[in-house]
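for the writeup, i need someone to sanity check this before i put it in the appendix. the sequnce is what the collaborator sent (i think, or maybe the updated version? ugh). structure was predicted straight from it, no edits. if anything looks off just tell me and ill rerun, i have time this weekend
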Amino acid sequence: MSDIIKAATPSFLLLMFFAPIIYGLYLRRINKLTTDRLCVLILVCGAVLRLMYISYTDEFIRQHDLGRFYEEKNNYHSGYMLYLLENLHLPDFDPRDRWQFYHPPLHHIICASVLGLLKALGIDHISKGPGVLQWLTASYSVLFCVFASKTMKLLGIKDKALSLATAVVTFHPTLIILSGSLNNDMLSALFSMLAVYFTVRWQKNRKWYDILGIAFSVGLGMMTKLTVGLLAPAIAIVFLIVLIKKRNEWKKLVPQFVLFGAVCIPIGMFWPVRNLIKFGVPFNYVPGLSENSGQYIDTPVVKRLFDYSIHQFSSPFTQWEWNGDSYNEYNPVIALLKNAMFDEDPFFSKSLTLQSFCTALFFAGAVVAVLSVLALIVMWSKHVKLDVELKLLLTIIYAVIFGNYIIFCINYPQVCTENMRYCVPLIFAGSAALGLMIGRFEESGNYTEKRICKTAAVSMTALPLLSTFVYAAMMFYEMAVN
């Protein structure tokens, strides 16, 4: 019976995926397919695609520093969860002594609680737990897309531009991959998205509810992964400009800023301050790998940053010498473009035909990425009707996150460092900028702007379609080869 259910699952999920599409075509036929309804249908399809993904992705596939739940000496993320479950307290030793235990504990506490519930119900939490935990990470991924779409609507993106930008976020391969990843990346990305959402809301209405939303999002985000704190400069700029513009409301705004600090700082800084006081762990501590790791990049920094030779584009997948490739992926920008589509492993290794779709997806993603940078520049045009503080919010997020990634790659020259999971907020910032650019250029009579708008629309359509095909086809491919 279990084999029958397993065989039927891919077909059932495929039917679930097409159901919203058919309903959308029906709404269009009767002229009731509004932009809001289209975005909801896109989000529903994205949720089903994530169910497809986690149906063939387990704790052994496309994970990062997870380890194995059944290992006795486990210093990875899964070991961290099990430590919390078994001991019911935070690590009472220097976290540097156990590989991934340096991370803030919120994600691991939530996962440990779920594992504990399974154990209390008499379910084998070691063998069944990872599959259940993926429902959490898949839910985080769906919520990221929901709040991304809501935020873009608050930014004034509408109609075709909103639906395209929502589709790019919803079907972006990184967010599909992270939906099945059991480390803390997806939850920290969700808190980052929530922080941006509440910041945009607060900029418009300056409500106490929204300032608390920002404070808890940043604080809990840093309790999940400290890099959420990289959003602080962008949020601070919004606070400052609003204070200058609305200086007659300073008696209301200053207490809000005090409340923000009183909530955000203790939550966000608890873990690094605790470890600094108790064990002398530096705030910016990240464990490094040795030069003998097999993935060390000994390429000079100048070449890493400025070499875009054509041989690096011969494969859409990250190159590893230990996989038999001729070099370790060294250019952090090219690596980011590859990794954003497929993480660190090649797809469809036994089918060149299916791999051709991966190549197409890679180039679609690259075009969207390049156009998103152009869109950030266009956003500063006076014709884009968006408050300067919100333009700065998107621009600073992009600059700080990407800049931090480049510095990280240089300071830790390993292939695994060149990963899109460190740059997830770029997906939102770039998509929002593209939405604003399309909205601006659609109304333009300039030939060049019209062509850029069309190119952006085509690439923003191709990316979701190719991503859907690749990640849905993988479900049937895995079933066929295993």
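Residues 1-6 have pLDDT under 50 and may be disordered. Residues 186-285 form one domain.
thx in advance!!
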